[in-house]
Design a protein that fits this description.
The complex is a heterodimer.
Chain A: E1 42-48, E2 63-64, H1 73-77, E3 84-88, H2 102-108, H3 130-138, E4 147-150, H4 166-170, E5 174-176, E6 179-180, H5 187-195, H6 204-229, H7 234-256, H8 274-290, E7 296-300, H9 319-323, H10 329-355, E8 357-358, E9 361-362, E10 367-373, E11 388-391, E12 402-405, H11 412-422
Helix pairs in contact in A: 5-8, 6-7, 8-10
Chain B: H1 3-20, H2 36-48, H3 55-66, E1 86-87, H4 90-101, H5 131-149, E2 157-162, H6 163-166, E3 172-174, E4 177-180, E5 184-192, E6 196-207, E7 214-220, E8 223-230, E9 238-246, E10 249-257, E11 261-263, E12 268-281, H7 291-296, H8 301-304, H9 306-321, H10 328-345, H11 348-361, H12 363-366, E13 367-368, E14 381-382, H13 385-396, H14 403-410, H15 417-429, H16 435-444, H17 447-452, H18 465-484, H19 489-494, E15 497-500, H20 502-508, E16 518-521, H21 534-539, H22 548-559, H23 584-591, H24 595-610, E17 633-635, E18 641-643, H25 645-654, H26 657-671, H27 680-692, H28 697-705, H29 708-711, E19 712-713
The chains are: A alpha/beta, B alpha+beta.
Chain lengths: ~450, ~725
């Protein structure tokens, strides 16, 4: 005998398929989408921890047709080299920590180009990240202004890095100077969040009623919260302010919900190894862009100074420990193996974006996908000459397939100014050290 | 004092004293070492306050409330501090929802992890509310309301629709039938009362032509469920049936004609005639009532009337949910929500679902609200009995007060020292006090880190999830003894017994218990006390080798509360990177000749060396991973000579910093705030009581709960924006 829910909460209960099925039928695309207008522009930031082994990364030649290097080889194998800009010589000087703490500081500053304030307490302070600047400008057009995703969750005890809060080590998206946006790491949770409110069989009347119910509850809670805030001191009232912001955001999303926009396919499974986990998250990124659920995504392949073991690709030792290689050839070889695996994942994501056609152009053509790490090299902890890739054409703002070398420690912040402008977001200077747009991208 | 420490200590006071005294504090994006002297002034100023003119007033207040409770009045202490509005963390949220409603929402397991401050995830200042979290609270509230209110349907619902009434854009009505004279469908809108399998029945007959009968699809939501051949004629229509899963809500069921045929020469005309469509379901029903709904309702909505019953039910529910008496006005707000749902669907449960969601999303539920009569006054005052009850239950149980505790809050007697003490002792013995193991001990001793810890597979293939779970369980069981009072906090360091299951027994080389975990003697194993636990020894190691530095740091930070300074710029981690040219110890000794490193490593390394007899996953060993002999002797900074884990354990046990440190850790966890400079006097007094009582955990809890910082709070001065 099975109990029945009188009021149904819809749920896609899928089988245990290993990957999310991508909806490939053009008929399932968002209605308001791309028949006439050009496809929307998107930004994706892809973070990898512990730096990169630069001798295996940097191409020797500049310009188009450069000879591929061992770590970048997977891009060539996936025929994606022509879709990627390799940028050398960019520096994120504000990321330099006060004393030790390069991993946390470099990660906190990864998309903010600000100088994270050294603290483990409540007084965290950073800048607003480039994805959030973009989300604030273009996010209102989609159900989710931005998506924050990752693979490693928060370790729930202990400080994170030499006096730096875990907030800096675990988050690259910062909506405000003290507001890191936590990331989701479970594919099924991400799936439910993106598509869980959608019942493809619901009638318009049902959808309208659900909207009325949800907004009534939220209106009540907002009123209740405002009343309480008046009775509190300033610090306490600020906590409620954060909550009010969240409530209004949820309400806006509900009010702008136009009903099902695309068929999300099967709900991803809850059991996976690392390789599958990364694949599932990447499929969800593609799906989120394709369904136009969001146009801004940040992704952390690991947390700052990740100590993950890579024994499944034959590497002995923890990533962070190995990254302090001290010029030991064996450790450098291990790092190169890990770095190559990371690029393999990124290349697979790019290939999927490229395979999706939107009225004659690929999804990748409308995207700027930024790839980098919190430091240059794990041993030197340098914040100069960062390993940077930018994939996609961003609707023509980028001309990929080249290696560009910048002299004089050109600020990474300038790349973000260029990307923001490419997205149609006005920006003069970004971060603490930005001076203007980066030359030679298009 | 290094500038970053000054800044940190100053930051802790920003919400209270620093603001009071007009110091801004390290809030700029770039910390300026030059500001350090202001930090010293803060600290001094707060210390001076104890003898200042205000001290008498605050002290008298503290003494007035704490009369009879030894910790309430402490010489030299005047400011009990205050706690920032405290959001329930993910564990507290799930526990509270479950205690309140009887159901633990699935969404709760997916809530993002809470940020850590001062080593714990229940720090009011640090617990922020992101939009994502808000969204998940909203989903959880929907899920909970639905689970509480679902009602089993006793029997399937049958809906019958005549085809000629429903009609279609293809065909025409013909007496009591709908004649589909071209390919198309008759589609009826029905309401599925609940998710589940439904039967769709269609009565039809066929006018055949060209030697063929009619092909008919039975459809649900516009999609074919099955295709049948209809050969029955007008005199004997036949009922066809198909079964399909339908979701609750407005759906469609239909009959479609697939093979229309018409020949104008011969007038041969194949048509499908549909009589009616019927939907029955859901099938396979349970008839047991929902106990959660029974528990929620204070009355019978049908007998007593929807709105009166909603009012009575909500008054009872919200009073518990918000952990304090609620006013009629507050209930009215939720009743307005009830009305929205009830009016839309004419259904009591639909209204109640919205009101429950409102109550669960209210800040009065999600936050532990504590009010000051004057939010801008720093005059300490006792927290209210209901606020105190919540402080107690979230400290000891990580959840809301139970009925007994609520009762003594309601009658106000909880503020009486005897009643408070009796409640405290009762709660510590309650099974819910295991929350102190799960949430306090697991963070204090960093056991949660173990879940994500990895060992090098090729060296330690046995170190998997099963072994990690066993390791964690061992430490939890031993701490359980501390909680139960059978083991003193001093004995925690030196105990000659522990708990093992089969996995750990083999790991430790002791006899395996018959099943599960059992207490075993460690005599003769070279292993004793907490620092002999494989959990601690593993989580302070690297995947492939031990780290004397990390083990030393663990003891200094977690057990002695004297964290070593971080390494100076440019040398971070270098000490840990070597090729095995000698024993790890020899290599580190060489490194320590560098005076820059020596001062801190003198403190950390001897502790770590004493534990070198245990490998990266806690096996005993005589040689290290490089094959070099182990030397566990050393000199602690105070000159004590030690050799091995047992000497180290005794040295920690006898170190006065140890009880003071445990007191500080539990104090931070109990209050959910970082330690303030003004807490020192309270903490000293609490530690003294702990030692005087014979290191019993229970007495430590009593001392903390009876201290002014636990019993009192104050507002903060309003800062006028420039």
């Amino acid at each position: 005998m099975i109990g029945r829910y009188r009021m149904s909460r819809r749920a896609f209960v899928g089988g245990a398929g290993a990957t999310v099925a991508l909806p490939l039928l053009p008929s399932l695309w968002p209605e308001h989408a791309f028949a006439q207008a050009p496809p929307p522009l998107r930004f994706l930031a892809y973070y990898v921890p512990c730096g990169i082994h630069m001798p295996g990364w940097t191409p020797s030649a500049e310009g188009a047709g450069f000879a591929v290097t061992p770590i970048l080889q997977p891009l060539a194998d996936a025929a994606m080299l022509g879709d990627v800009l390799v940028l050398s010589g960019l520096a994120n000087a504000p990321a330099r920590p006060d004393g030790p703490g390069d991993h946390a500081s470099g990660t906190g500053s990864f998309l903010t180009c600000a100088h994270p304030f050294k603290t483990e307490g409540a007084d965290i302070a950073n800048g607003i990240s480039v994805d959030q600047v973009a989300a604030a400008a273009i996010g209102a057009d989609t159900s989710f202004a931005s998506l924050e995703l990752g693979i490693e969750g928060g370790s729930s005890a202990g400080g994170c890095d030499s006096g730096y809060s875990c907030a800096y080590s675990r988050n690259i998206a910062w909506a405000g100077v003290s507001t890191p946006l936590p990331k989701l790491t479970s594919p099924s949770t991400v799936f439910d969040r993106l598509f869980g409110g959608i019942d493809p069989m619901a009638s318009a009347a049902e959808r309208a009623r659900r909207k009325l119910f949800q907004t009534s509850v939220l209106d009540y809670v907002i009123g209740d919260t405002n009343k309480l805030a008046k009775k509190l001191g300033q610090t306490d009232a600020r906590k409620l302010d954060e909550y009010l912001t969240g409530l209004r955001e949820v309400e806006l999303r509900i009010e702008s919900d136009q009903g099902p926009m695309c068929d999300p396919g099967t709900r991803p499974p809850d059991n996976y190894d690392l390789q599958t986990h990364v694949g599932l998250m990447q499929d969800l990124m593609v799906l989120a862009f394709q369904c136009d659920a969001t146009r801004v995504i940040t992704f952390m392949l690991g947390n700052a100074a990740s100590g993950r073991s890579y024994d499944f690709i034959g590497v002995t030792g923890a990533h962070h420990e190995l990254s302090h290689h001290q010029d030991d050839a064996a450790k450098q070889a291990s790092l190169q193996t890990i770095d190559t695996w990371e690029i393999e994942q990124f290349a697979a994501l790019l290939a999927k974006l490229k395979a999706i056609d939107e009225s004659g152009t690929s999804l990748l053509d409308s995207t700027a996908a930024f790839f980098s790490s919190e430091i240059e090299d794990g041993d030197s902890h340098s914040h100069y000459n960062l390993p940077v890739l930018v994939a996609g054409k961003l609707g023509g703002a980028l001309r990929p397939g080249r290696h560009v070398r910048y002299p004089n420690d050109e600020p990474l912040a300038n790349l973000f100014t260029s990307i923001l402008r490419g997205l149609g977001v006005a920006n003069d200077k970004f971060g603490l050290d930005g001076t203007g747009p980066l030359a030679n991208l298009s | 004092m290094p500038w970053w420490k000054q800044c940190a200590s100053r930051a802790r006071m920003v919400s209270t004293l620093a603001l009071l005294l007009g110091f801004g504090g390290c809030s700029g994006l770039i910390g300026d070492p030059g500001e350090g002297s202001a930090g010293d002034r803060d600290r001094n100023a707060s210390g001076d306050q104890g003898t200042g003119p205000d001290a008498g007033v605050a002290g008298a207040d503290a003494g007035g409330l704490g009369a009879g409770s030894d910790g309430g009045l402490v010489p030299g202490a005047s400011d009990p501090g205050t706690v920032t509005l405290h959001r329930l963390n993910r564990v507290e949220y799930a526990n509270t929802v479950e205690d309140l409603t009887g159901v633990r929402p699935d969404v709760a397991a997916e809530l993002p992890s809470d940020d850590i401050g001062y080593g714990f995830d229940n720090i009011g200042d640090v617990l922020s509310v992101s939009p994502l979290l808000t969204e998940m609270y909203q989903k959880a509230a929907e899920e909970v309301a639905q689970k509480i209110l679902f009602q089993p349907i006793d029997e399937p619902v049958t809906q019958h629709l005549e085809a000629e009434v429903v009609g279609s854009d293809v065909g025409a009505a013909e007496s009591e039938f709908w004649n589909l004279y071209a390919n198309g469908s008759v589609t009826a809108e029905i309401t599925a009362a609940a998710d589940g399998p439904h039967e769709i029945l269609v009565r039809a007959w066929c006018q055949p032509a060209a030697g063929e009968f009619c092909q008919m699809t039975i459809e649900a939501n516009g999609l074919p469920v099955s295709t049948v051949e209809v050969s029955a004629d007008r005199n004997a229509p036949v009922v066809f049936m198909a079964t399909t899963d339908l979701k609750a809500g407005v759906r469609t069921a239909g009959a479609g004609f697939l093979n229309d045929f018409y020949d104008s020469m011969t007038n041969a005309d194949r048509n499908l005639y549909v009589d009616w469509i019927e939907v029955r379901g859901p099938l396979g029903l349970s008839s047991a009532p929902n106990p959660l709904r029974e528990r929620l309702l204070a009355c019978d909505p049908e007998a007593d009337g929807h709105r009166p019953c909603a009012q009575e039910t909500l008054a009872r529910f919200v009073d518990r949910a918000w952990r304090r008496p609620v006013s009629d006005l507050e209930i009215d707000g939720l009743l307005a929500l009830f009305d929205v749902g009830e009016k839309a669907l004419g259904d009591f449960d639909a209204g109640m679902a919205l009101a429950i969601q409102g109550a669960l999303l209210s800040p009065h539920f999600l936050f532990r609200v504590e009010l000051d009569a004057d939010p801008a006054s720093v005059e300490p005052h006792p927290v209210s009995p209901h606020e105190l009850a919540s402080r107690l239950s979230y400290f000891l149980w990580s959840t809301m007060p139970d009925d007994t505790l609520r009762g003594v809050a309601d009658d106000g007697s909880l503020v009486e020292p005897d009643v408070l003490r009796a409640q405290l002792l009762r709660m510590l013995k309650h099974e819910k006090a295991s929350a102190l193991v799960d949430n306090f001990a697991s963070q204090w001793l960093m056991l949660r880190v173990l879940d994500e810890h990895e060992a090098e597979y090729n060296l330690f293939p046995e170190f998997g999830d099963a072994m990690k779970a066993a390791m964690r369980k061992e430490t939890e069981l031993v701490f359980g003894e501390v909680l139960a009072g059978t083991l003193g906090l001093d004995e925690l360091m030196t105990a000659d017994h522990t708990y093992v299951d089969g996995v750990l027994a083999e790991h430790y080389g002791v006899a395996s218990p018959a099943n599960g975990f059992a207490s075993v003697s460690l005599a003769g194993t070279g292993r004793a006390g907490l620092l002999g636990h494989a959990s601690i020894l593993s989580l302070t190691s690297y995947p492939a080798r031990t780290s004397p530095v990390r083990r030393g740091k663990f003891v200094l930070e977690q057990l002695l509360c004297t964290p070593p300074k971080p390494p100076p710029p440019g040398v971070e981690g270098l000490v840990d990177e070597d090729t095995p040219s000698g024993s790890l110890r020899e290599r580190m000794e060489a490194h320590r000749k560098n005076p820059v490193c020596a001062s801190c490593h003198m403190q950390m390394d001897p502790i770590g060396f004493a534990l070198e007899g245990f490998d990266p996953i806690g096996h005993t060993r005589k040689t290290d991973t490089g094959g070099f002999a182990i030397d566990t002797s050393g000199e602690l900074p105070d000159g004590t000579m030690i050799d091995g884990a047992s000497d180290l354990a005794q040295a920690i046990r006898d170190d006065p910093r140890y009880p003071r440190c445990v007191a500080e850790k539990l104090f931070v966890y109990a209050l959910g705030r970082g330690p303030l400079g003004s807490d020192d006097a309270y903490l000293d007094a609490i530690a003294d009581r702990l030692v005087a009582s014979g290191h019993r955990f229970e007495d430590l809890v009593i001392a903390i709960v009876q201290s002014a910082p636990f019993l009192q709070r104050h507002g903060e001065p309003a800062v006028v924006s420039p």
